[in-house]
Design brief:
This protein has nine helices and 13 strands. The chain has 307 residues and is α/β, with parallel strands linked by helices. The chain folds into three domains: 54 residues, Nucleic acid-binding proteins (OB fold (Dihydrolipoamide Acetyltransferase, E2P), Beta Barrel); 161 residues, Rossmann fold (3-Layer(aba) Sandwich); 64 residues, Probable gtpase engc, domain 3 (Ribonucleotide Reductase Protein R1, domain 1, Orthogonal Bundle), CATH 1.10.40.50. Bound molecules: guanosine-5'-diphosphate (GDP) and zinc ion (ZN). Zinc ion binds next to α8.
Length: 307
Amino acid sequence: AAAAKALHDGLVVASHGRHCLVETPTGERLICHPRGKKSQAVVGDRVHWQASEDEGTIEQVLPRRNLFYRQDEIRTKSFAANLDHVLILIAAEPEFSEHQLARALIAAEAERITPIIALNKSDLVEPFERAWTKLAPYRRMHHGVLPLSLKASGEADYASLMKLLAGKSTLVLGPSGSGKSTLTNLLVPGATVLTQEISQALNSGKHTTTSTTWYWIDEARTTGLIDSPGFQEFGLNHIAPMQLAGLMPDIAEHANDCKFYNCTHLHEPGCGVIANVETASSGPGAISASRYKIYGELFAELSQKRY
Ligand code: GDP
Ligand code: ZN
């Protein structure tokens, strides 16, 4: 009678509050609840679960490769784990915030996740050119920028995107209006309806959307796409101010030239970063004035969070 129940493998594909939707290796899905605080799982988590009536109990969350955070007014909360890529989808229109883009890149860098920046709506010629120019510092970085038109050019354009995504799990982020739902619905026909069904199941029939959902874009279930609304509230609270420069590759490149090992690159004499911003502000390998400004803003923000 007291025999231990079997533990099963699962992947968390959606969550709402303390409820999770867990997918089994054969593709069935069931609602699970965590056992205690220790088994609190997020989308992308691999878990061990145990059957209990028609639902399940998560007994263990397996060790994570990485963990992503979001931030509301009050606190920082984890929301996705075990990602290979972060796809930052911005568009020619509406105009994107460089500050938000930089935040997302830093968050990815901090978790050692490869970011992909895609600039959508290349069919809108003039706004696209403006945005492409604004992205010059990002095009110079290791990840580059992928031009894209989800609406106009279809196949050819996202063939290169598909190549990047294949066999990986990718979190899609971006400001409202950039084309995230267009992308999801292109890659996962019926995604919107599926999300609504999942939300209702997890939230006892109420019409709300879950914050994060995992989709498979291939039948073999090897390529995962994770949708999550919200961009501005990217959680960076877990990053110390002195770590920041190391997470911005263009700034890190010049931080070795500083006179002081603990240089903040804000006001010190003999700072390699400041020297670069002042002298080389448009040449190749230069830190752009806008990037340096963002560095200063984020440094101040992260410093405040400590007290
Ligand atoms: P989301 O808020 O990020 O989910 O953005 P949506 O997917 O809802 O797209 C916002 C609007 O941009 C919609 O009207 C789309 O039809 C449109 N849109 C998406 N991709 C393209 C594109 O490549 N070119 C143009 N011109 N419009 C697009
Ligand atoms: Zn310095």
